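Input for the complex:
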Amino acid sequence: NDVDTFKARLESLVVPERVQSRIDDELNKLSVLETGSPEYGTTRNYLDWLTSLPWGVTSQDQLDLPHARQVLDRDHDGLTDVKERIIEFLAEGTFKGDVGGSIVLLVGPPGVGKTSIGRSIAEALGRQFYRFSVGGMRDEAEIKGHRRTYVGAMPGKLVQAFKEVEVENPVIMLDEIDKLGQSFQGDPASALLEVLDPEQNVDFLDHYLDVRMDLSKVLFLCTANTLDSIPGALLDRMEQIRLSGYIAEEKLAIAKHHLWPKLLKRDNLPKKRINLTDAALKQVIEGYAREAGVRQLEKQLHRIVRKSAVKLLEEELETVKISVKNLEEFLGAPIFRKEKVLTGEGVVTGLAWTSMGGATLPIEAGKVHSLDRGFKLTGKLGEVMQESANIAYSYTLGHLQEYGADADFFDSAFVHLHVPEGATPKDGPSAGVTMTTALLSLAKHHAIDRPLAMTGELTLTGQVLPVGGIREKVIAARRSDIFELILPDANQRDYEELPDYLKEGVTVHFAKRYRDVADVVF
Ligand code: ATP
Ligand code: MG
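Predicted:
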């Protein structure tokens, strides 16, 4: 009978005293209740949960650095600095004797391998892995459970995780922690803090379970695309590891060593029957998957595999060869053309950094002939960006002669500044230098005739201030084949710290004041 089943389950567990006494109470209750009654059902259900959690059961951590390196290298190409951070983290754990109680945040654009490196961390440690997304959650009961008085009450995700993994020390991944604020009921920060904070999570209370659980042996990994929307109290307690996106060469290696073999294996297709040339693969990366991560690339490669499978069957071929020549038969016309360098008076390429990774951001200034002077902005710019556009306008207006333009150029001109693409929201101060250059290029009738991109905040007095996301921006510039950059002088260290393969072939000018920028551009 039920009572015996539950008792048998407890034999191999080390149940904490307070939990044991609750279980005993409930068992006594069960034995006097009528088997068919609703209360019997709920009590039975409750006991089922209480007795199927891994009280006192832990797995042995495998804190073995060579093994960890091997697992990380086997599953992921590149990401050298990320892997190194993980190794450091494990080395610390070796001395502390434990990696539990830590919260690691993997942050970066979509498809760069956050979730998949999380899995590898668990595997390297020899721990069970459980993952759930907090992104789509509507109320805090999904984390902390419903009170038992609710009809159909259930414990929250954390308790569910423990039942599934059958140990007290799994790796639990909370995906999309940056998307939690928008859809959550109640106070999102405090619900998550209870789970994550080492000072609170030793006695985490799930509403359904109604007995305290120790979450402190769990290694929490969180993932996010941006830091902006993560509550400060949470962010403070996390170890951040940044993944910033791949350049074409890295994508090529990832595709060859991981994505392509994985796709073929999944469909049980022998490697020699589908022959994708290196040149064609490069073309897929350039023409169809120009993103920070590799998810689109994976999708496009999957399309090639599907179409090849059809060809193999219908045309009864022994092998299919995909080369640059016939690639369009498989994928259609390229989505991205080789980017032509934007030219023209008033057109300048900036560098932006969003949750999707780095991006090049062309900025256009145009003169609308009219008798009014004035200034107009379009392109869905956020408040900060509008302010920096205003600063750019004022600064340009005040220094026309100094930079060799007609002093009265703007006197009878209505100026329009536009940042394509118009429908994508943009914000931040880092385009100040770029907007100023666009305005000056217009006033000086001087088109910029070479691939050149810039970023930097500008003050009203012409100082160039540092900006974030240097690494992402350099990657984005390379992706657009731009190898000459202007960066704020104060970002020099960020740039120097980049790995060599990102800096190779890049010419950088560092600017302290706007004068330095103008000297490079004009
Ligand atoms: P999102 O923010 O959208 O959740 P993510 O960063 O979690 O994205 P993943 O799902 O981990 O992205 O990665 C997408 C795919 O790319 C996976 O199949 C993953 O294995 C593969 N991948 C990403 N980076 C690498 C890499 N460096 N080496 C090998 N495979 C990789
Ligand atoms: Mg993910």
